[in-house]
Amino acid sequence: MATRMDLDGKPIKPMTICMIGAGGFIGSHLCEKLMVETPHKVLALDVYSDKIKHLLEPDSLPWAGRIVFHRLNIKHDSRLEGLIKMADLTINLAAICTPADYNTRPLDTIYSNFIDALPVVKYCSENNKRLIHFSTCEVYGKTIGSFLPKDSPLRKDPAYYVLKEDTSPCIFGSIEKQRWSYACAKQLIERLIYAEGAENGLDFTIVRPFNWIGPRMDFIPGIDGPSEGVPRVLACFSNNLLRCEPLKLVDGGESQRTFVYIKDAIEAVLLMIENPDRANGHIFNVGNPNNEVTVRQLAEMMTKVYAKVSGEPSLESPTIDVSSKEFYGEGYDDSDKRIPDMTIINRQLGWNPKTSLWDLLESTLTYQHRTYAEAIKKSMVKPIAS
Ligand SMILES: NC(=O)c1ccc[n+]([C@@H]2O[C@H](COP(=O)([O-])OP(=O)(O)OC[C@H]3O[C@@H](n4cnc5c(N)ncnc54)[C@H](O)[C@@H]3O)[C@@H](O)[C@H]2O)c1
Ligand SMILES: O=C(O)[C@H]1O[C@H](OP(=O)(O)OP(=O)(O)OC[C@H]2O[C@@H](n3ccc(=O)[nH]c3=O)[C@H](O)[C@@H]2O)[C@H](O)[C@@H](O)[C@@H]1O
């Protein structure tokens, strides 16, 4: 493998990375990228390894020995500090991060996103190890624009809705809206990491992902996850499409999101890993401001793309409305609109997303169809009464 160069033309030394939550959606893509394109070593920590099994076996893989899986729960495992000490860099991805959990399991959500992340920050700070911590765009909460009258011309002014790392406020709902337990816990851990940097010299980078989507995201209920489980929107809509059911639009599907392809986003993370001088001390939005849609438009586009990749006709009424109370239960609330400002990541790392929403849905839904269609068909065949 040719020596890799950083953005300033300096050779990059191979490093050891302690990746916590390596068995999840983002972790699996990051491990893949690191194995295929770089000489770095990964200590992969998680309670699950299904999504990275293809990287761990067989022993004949070209990167065998560069990735080692450690099955552990960071809530209670004395091996954590030792593994952080063995690495040059720690990346923390571990978290509960599905909205259906925020209002129904707020304690687990707060513990997972704040309390369980504390020792990771502490061990990095005490051992002078660099930390890349995964936060979320949800720390911005609602936009300022959403509080303006519906007909206010100011709603069209980007100053009232574009989200900037260094100037936008964090606007959450009331405490009884437990949806915000996740965003609030993430905000507090961001503040703690920032303070460790300011007071104790911790080298940190904070990532705020804006709806990264692609293959291996979450689970399909009843196939590789619980039948009653509610994953994030990509998997919910994929599940509906695979089962030929209408897609459920929560509260009219009016909320807006910008979706970025996981493979584009992983490029940004690799730049952070390999350019510490440009990434340390920064908080980065990572998203695609050009891929904005309402959830209703997302449903319509996914329906069209799925018909194309599966060859199956779409339903006559492809969507159905459902209230958030019915779908998520008491205490749900929503982010209205999420457009990332790209100034800081552009300036520091020269990164820009490339993939359009249509193209990323086409490759993702091709994967979903190939991976799940047969299993769904089998699970839907009713047993014949004897
Ligand atoms: N996917 C996105 O678009 C997105 C957006 C915003 C923020 N994030 C953040 O990025 C991170 C990764 O997200 P993801 O989409 O890959 O989620 P994911 O759920 O697929 O991955 C998280 C992984 O962490 C593991 N984990 C959780 N608690 C653990 C513990 N106590 N010990 C060991 N492992 C544990 C889980 O088993 C899982 O494999 C999270 O912190 C999330 O909040 C993701
Ligand atoms: O991905 C992100 O950047 C962050 O946002 C997500 O939050 P959200 O975008 O609200 O989660 P989704 O489950 O993907 O829902 C998106 C929208 O679709 C709606 N939805 C979801 C599922 C469904 O079946 N129907 C439906 O209309 C939701 O109400 C919401 O408005 C999650 O909180 C995190 O994974 C993450 O931190």
UniProtKB/TrEMBL annotation:
Keywords assigned by UniProt, alphabetized: Cell wall biogenesis/degradation, Cytoplasm, Lyase, NAD
Gene Ontology molecular function: any one: protein heterodimerization activity
Entries under SUPFAM superfamilies matching the protein: NAD(P)-binding Rossmann-fold domains
Record carries keyword Iron: no
Compartments reported by the entry: Cytoplasm
An annotated GO BP: cell wall organization
Domain NAD-dependent epimerase/dehydratase, first and last residues per copy: 17-287
GO annotations of cellular component type: cytoplasm
Reactions listed under catalytic activity: UDP-alpha-D-glucuronate + H(+) = UDP-alpha-D-xylose + CO2; UDP-alpha-D-glucuronate + H(+) = UDP-alpha-D-apiose + CO2
Coiled-coil stretches: none
Principal place of residence: cytoplasm
Cofactors, names only: NAD(+)
Record's keyword annotation contains Cell wall biogenesis/degradation: yes
EC number: 4.1.1.35
InterPro entries according to UniProt: Arna-like_SDR_e (IPR045869), Epimerase_deHydtase (IPR001509), Lipid_A_modif_metabolic_enz (IPR050177), NAD(P)-bd_dom_sf (IPR036291)
Pfam families: Epimerase
PANTHER family: BIFUNCTIONAL POLYMYXIN RESISTANCE PROTEIN ARNA (PTHR43245), UDP-D-APIOSE_UDP-D-XYLOSE SYNTHASE 2 (PTHR43245:SF13)
Family membership noted in the UniProt record: Belongs to the NAD(P)-dependent epimerase/dehydratase family.
Annotated protein name in UniProt: UDP-glucuronate decarboxylase
